[in-house]
Amino acid sequence: MMDRFSLRLRVFLFFALLAIGGIVITLGGLVAGYLRAGNPELLQGYVFSGVIIALLVLALITGVWFLFDEHVAKPLERLAADLRARAHAGVKAELDTSAARYLGDLAPAAQAVAGQLSEGAVSTAAAVARETQRVQADASRLSALLSELPVATMMVGAEGQVVLYDAQAAGALEETGSLRLNAPVTEVFAAADLHAAKAKLDKTGQPVSARLSLADGSAPVAARLVPLGDAPGYILTFDAPDLPDADAARPLVFDFALLDQPVDADLRDRPLSSLSFTVFDTETTGLLPHKDDIVQIGAVHVLSGRIVPGEEIDQYVDPGRPIPAASTKVHGISDAMVAGAPDIATAGRQLHRFACNSVIVAHNAPFDMAFLHRQASAMGVRWEHPILDTVLLSAVVYGTTDTHTLDALCERLEITIPEARRHTALGDAEATAKVLCCLLPLLEQRGFDTLGKLLEETKRHGRLLQDLN
């Protein structure tokens, strides 16, 4: 039971027990002395003495606890969190040992360990960079080969999720906005056509040709399903006529780890590293979710602890009313910029599709989610995704008394937010996503390695969001 408590809470309980024990012993001694004296006239004096002594003992122990908490317990927690950040989140800056100056040689020793970790990380990073460069070169060659083929290519996992797609597929389906890693392939192609072709593939074990309608009602395309041999899933190729030149920024997008996802596993029991996250942010006409409206939505996709390049939303939203000048001064969005943009019903449905099969993440999520919940009926959707808040994740890692603003987290984790992108929906969503990618390994090292465990732990810090809002 006690191992679930933080160090500071355990220290507080220790001093509380010490205070209670000291008061009980003192009062017990006074009672014993009064009974031995056997003089009723002394009762008032004994009671007065007992109250004074109890208050003095309580004040003394409270003062000692405060000093111990401020100069020992709190610096120890911060030092541990900073060491974890350097060990698992790639932070390289020197430790701030000023707060730990009362811990004797512990802070300099921690700094020495951090330095050794940094040197080892540099050499490891160099080796990883060389290997990554080789893999990227192989991927570029494969992408160049696929780009010459007159078909679009996708790989689909055992659960029907997109595992790989090339530039042709991205270009052919760009207007639908539905193609992204870990998205159900039934968001791309009509479920009935796809299921019929997949059933034939499962039955014969041989490549299958089919006509597949797009999920948005577009005309059917000629497609071919090819099994992956002993591996689960299949390759899907389809005709993509009249395509523009392949998008050089997204030549080939894949995550083969999706092939190893357990089938039908409960989302709460899955490891954090296997989850898909939709990290989003909004800009609004004001700070009152019950009356103000969204004017911009930004979202990025995080998978396997990294941001998936190119899979993002950067959408202005027409609020249907003038944007106050005070709000424009903050986020720079004017009435002219949202003129002709989709309304919240359309933009909200786009975000809902983008977040399918993923955990929603935001910084101060209750604020942004309140706007979406208020407009859910207009969107025709239900926001039932699991939700994580980087404010609470920071509290789990760094303790509740630390600063948990997005700027403070970015500074602590060495994340740079370009000034031009601060207070833009996509810029803040990207910064939040980078914070999430840094915090995930720290949370796993603390034992919160599944979504269920992490959700339970963040509930303990919910008061932070109430105070924030």
Task: Provide a descriptive summary of the structure in words.
This protein has 15 helices and eleven strands. The protein has 469 residues and is of the alpha+beta class.
Distance between the termini: 32 Å
Instruction: Please tell me how large the radius of gyration is.
Output: 29 Å
CATH topology of the largest domain: Nucleotidyltransferase, domain 5
Q: How many H/I helices?
A: 15
Q: What is the ordering of alpha helices and beta strands?
A: HHHEEHHEEEEEEEHHHEHHEHHHHH
Quickly list its features.
six-stranded antiparallel beta sheet, 15% strand, alpha+beta, Nucleotidyltransferase, domain 5, Beta-Lactamase, 48% helix, 3 domains, elongated, 15 helices, 11 strands, 469 residues
Helix-strand blueprint:
Blueprint: H1 7-37, H2 43-88, H3 106-147, E1 151-156, E2 162-166, H4 167-172, H5 191-204, E3 208-212, E4 221-227, E5 234-239, E6 252-254, E7 276-284, E8 294-303, E9 306-316, H6 325-331, H7 335-338, H8 344-354, E10 359-362, H9 365-374, H10 376-379, E11 387-389, H11 390-398, H12 406-412, H13 425-445, H14 451-459, H15 463-468
Parallel strand pairs: 7-10, 10-11
Antiparallel strand pairs: 1-2, 1-5, 2-6, 3-4, 4-5, 7-8, 8-9
